[in-house]
């Protein structure tokens, strides 16, 4: 819907009150106790509701009771409040709804015949404005039943008060300025302040009887009731708004149809995609929807609607909360299903829309429901399949389908009365937009293995991780092996590249195996003034001088840490270290020694240098840098830890010495410097730096475009070219990248990314000719054409 200020999202639940398997009732607090608050979705989970909206207004900072009435399953949980603008939804024993003001009159009669007005049941303090004014509890008498959460006691805010505990109509306790821990089942408390306290002290004695009489107006046997505030719609017309927080806000309302058969639970959302509503706009919508009478419930941050989706077991937010998360509220209005388990009616089967050639797709039953719309466990139902030719269905698991051919295939599923046709496209190279190994570089030590992950994007806009077994893998240059799933294992220190291919599209990343033989010293701990000593939460002290770290944890049973920090910003570490090495003179303290590292992206890593310092004298510690860090790194600190509640009598003080902090770097995947190439149109001679070399095919111009021979161009730059006749494809490998070109095709693959070509490659004299622009973009080079000399210079 669109109002005067923008789009607004409205959610509506229509409830058929004549359905014998539907029950409407209220929910309160936690575990059915008022005097506390809970998010409606958690109330619904506790009670088994299938849908709910938030309920009455309340004071955020108070104990957690609504301003108005709450009746649950015929029992009054909270009484109506003495507030001016209040109207309640009430449903009688016959399931007939009413909306009107609901009032409350009650009095307490003691054994000596004295009477005192009872002002409320299970109420928190509020400022009254109807029938009397002032604080609701001062000089008043209130009742608290076994539905009140005594952990949030109202009397604590009153100062002087008296309580009376009544069990089976008999006074069993009287207490001043204190309360019981819990109200027994069937019992109640009377809380008196001021004049009411005087009444209790004068007329109530332990062991005497006491009687409470109250009635509701209108006085009927209400099955459920929940208070709101102003009427929104009255007899199909806009009602006078008697209370409103002005402006566009999230709103909640409840109303019913003229024939009183249908109940409507409505929310208007206030979020980045919905502007909220005024109450006047909400009234307009309700009338348009055919609502005969409606009342406004609490809104703003309280507005919530949750529901169980058809055929699912889980509740979820239907309305996005105004402040991002559901607010805890004291009560809510809920819908319950009492239907028995019925026969399967329908459901939904999910199957991915795209597959790679050779891939197995697994179908899932995402929802199933019976004739009463109860959810059914997917394990309890079966699906009938109609599978297209060219798709192989697994006999042992009929939910698995193998797609060995390219094309588009239809699979039909029947679940109860629901029939779906699933159209699956098996992607070809024409559908591929990008194939990318997620790791920018693979670094492993000799003997280690790493399995890369791969992401593909397609021209239909989809993007997904793929099963690496469906790809072709090559390991070039690096000394190791690659398995069918792309797992690389290093055998000797070396540098190379890993290539993954699908349908001729290839992508590559550098592979580094092993480290450089020589370490690099980054700190000898002989620079005074660059280190800081700091204890965790200010607990712990120490000093550092000439490589000697003296620490004192102080006296505490909590976790204690003393940091040797590299100033306030840390120590910048150049290069790409694989290992850290540190000489440590131990104190046999048993403490935990660690270092803190921050990478280029700001992610912090905590690295164990020693789980326990259990030695005396010098020892060299070597630890690997965590995998996946983004270089360069910053060394933040070296620190010692006294474990929380340590039972091994580790000392509170100690002294360590540090020396010779080194890094050992990974072997480098370096790109060799390229010579300058100078070609001349229609001439088979090329200048490589200052050296002349011959070509077997000269550069040419065709239809105004300059073409160079791919093989000569690539090999002169130190690259490698492969020809695949079955695919009519040329592959160029250089600088840890792969370029793929197809004859007579106006696109290329630049390290796995589809790029458009303004002219297609072709063969001349047995050589693949490529346009200058394709070579420039593909190899990341600068190419200059001099029209006067007809020369082409490549830098």
UniProtKB/TrEMBL annotation:
Residues 206-336 form the Phosphodiester glycosidase domain. This is Copper amine oxidase. It holds the Pfam family Cu_amine_oxidN1. Gene3D superfamilies: Copper amine oxidase-like, N-terminal domain (3.30.457.10). It comes from the Bacteria. Residues 689-793 form the Copper amine oxidase-like N-terminal domain. It comes from Tepidibacillus decaturensis.
């Amino acid at each position: 819907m669109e109002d005067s200020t923008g789009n607004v999202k409205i959610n509506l639940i229509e409830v058929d009150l004549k359905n014998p398997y539907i029950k409407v009732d209220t929910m309160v607090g936690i575990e059915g106790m008022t005097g506390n608050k809970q998010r409606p979705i958690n109330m619904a989970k506790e009670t088994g509701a299938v849908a709910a909206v938030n309920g009455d207004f309340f004071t955020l900072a108070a104990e957690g009771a609504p301003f108005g009435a709450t009746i649950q399953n015929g029992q009054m949980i909270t009484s109506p409040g003495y507030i001016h603008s209040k109207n309640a939804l009430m449903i009688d024993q016959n399931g007939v709804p009413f909306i009107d003001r609901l009032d409350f009159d009650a009095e307490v009669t003691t054994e000596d015949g004295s009477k005192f007005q009872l002002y409320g049941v299970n109420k928190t303090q509020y400022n009254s404005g109807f029938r009397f004014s002032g604080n609701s509890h001062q000089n008043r008498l209130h009742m608290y039943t076994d539905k009140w959460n005594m952990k949030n006691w109202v009397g604590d805010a009153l100062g002087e008060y008296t309580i009376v505990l009544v069990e089976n109509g008999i006074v069993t306790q009287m207490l001043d300025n204190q309360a019981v821990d819990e109200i027994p089942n069937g019992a109640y408390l009377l809380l008196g302040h001021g004049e009411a306290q005087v009444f209790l002290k004068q007329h109530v004695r332990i062991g005497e009887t006491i009687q409470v009489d109250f009635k509701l107006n209108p006085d009927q046997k209400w099955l459920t009731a929940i208070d709101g505030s102003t009427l929104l719609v009255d007899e199909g017309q806009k009602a006078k708004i008697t209370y409103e927080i002005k402006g566009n806000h999230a709103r909640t309302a409840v109303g019913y149809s003229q024939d009183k058969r249908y109940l409507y639970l409505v929310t208007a959302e206030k979020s980045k995609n919905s502007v909220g509503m005024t109450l006047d706009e909400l009234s307009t919508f309700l009338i348009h929807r055919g609502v005969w009478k409606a009342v406004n419930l609490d809104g703003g941050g309280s507005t919530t609607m949750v529901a169980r989706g058809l055929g699912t077991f889980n509740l979820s937010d239907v309305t996005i909360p105004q402040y991002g998360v559901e607010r805890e509220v004291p009560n809510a209005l809920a819908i319950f299903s009492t239907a028995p388990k019925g026969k399967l009616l329908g459901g939904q089967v999910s199957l991915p829309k795209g597959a790679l050639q050779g891939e197995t797709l697994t179908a899932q039953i995402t929802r199933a429901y019976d004739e009463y719309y109860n959810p059914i466990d997917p394990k309890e139902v079966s699906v009938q399949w109609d599978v297209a030719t060219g798709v192989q269905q697994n006999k042992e698991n009929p939910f698995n389908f193998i797609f060995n051919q390219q094309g588009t295939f239809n699979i039909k599923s029947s679940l109860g009365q629901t029939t779906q046709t699933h159209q699956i496209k098996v992607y070809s190279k024409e559908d591929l937009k990008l194939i990318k190994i997620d790791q920018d570089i693979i670094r492993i030590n000799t003997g280690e293995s790493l399995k890369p992950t791969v992401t593909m994007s397609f021209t239909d806009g989809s993007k997904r991780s793929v099963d690496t077994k469906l790809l072709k893998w090559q390991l070039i240059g690096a000394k190791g092996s690659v398995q069918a799933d792309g797992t690389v294992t290093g055998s000797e220190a070396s540098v190379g590249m890993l290539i993954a291919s699908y349908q001729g599209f290839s992508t590559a990343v550098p592979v580094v195996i092993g480290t450089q033989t020589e370490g690099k010293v980054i700190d000898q701990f002989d620079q005074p003034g660059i280190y800081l000593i700091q204890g965790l939460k200010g607990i712990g002290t120490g000093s550092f001088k000439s490589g000697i770290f003296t620490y004192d944890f102080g006296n505490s049973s909590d976790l204690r840490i003393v940091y040797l920090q590299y100033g306030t910003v840390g120590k910048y570490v150049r290069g790409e270290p694989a290992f850290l090495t540190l000489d440590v003179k131990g104190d046999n303290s048993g403490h935990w020694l660690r270092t803190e590292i921050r990478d280029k992206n700001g992610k912090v890593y905590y690295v164990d240098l020693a789980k326990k310092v259990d030695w005396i004298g010098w020892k060299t510690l070597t630890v690997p840098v965590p995998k996946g860090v983004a270089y360069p790194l910053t060394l933040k600190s070296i620190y010692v830890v006294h474990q929380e509640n340590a039972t091994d009598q580790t000392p509170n003080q100690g002294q360590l010495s540090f020396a010779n902090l080194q890094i050992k770097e990974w072997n480098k995947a370096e790109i060799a410097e390229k010579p300058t190439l100078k070609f001349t149109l229609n001439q088979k001679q090329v200048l490589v730096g200052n050296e002349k070399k011959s070509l077997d095919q000269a550069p040419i111009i065709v239809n105004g475009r300059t073409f160079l021979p791919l093989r000569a161009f690539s090999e002169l730059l130190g690259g490698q070219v492969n020809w695949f006749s079955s695919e009519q494809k040329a592959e160029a490998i250089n600088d840890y990248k792969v370029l793929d070109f197809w004859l007579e095709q106006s696109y290329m693959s630049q390290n796995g990314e589809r790029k458009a070509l303004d002219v297609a490659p072709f063969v001349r004299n047995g050589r693949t000719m490529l346009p200058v622009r394709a070579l420039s973009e593909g190899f990341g080079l600068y190419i200059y054409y001099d029209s006067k000399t007809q020369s082409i210079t490549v830098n």
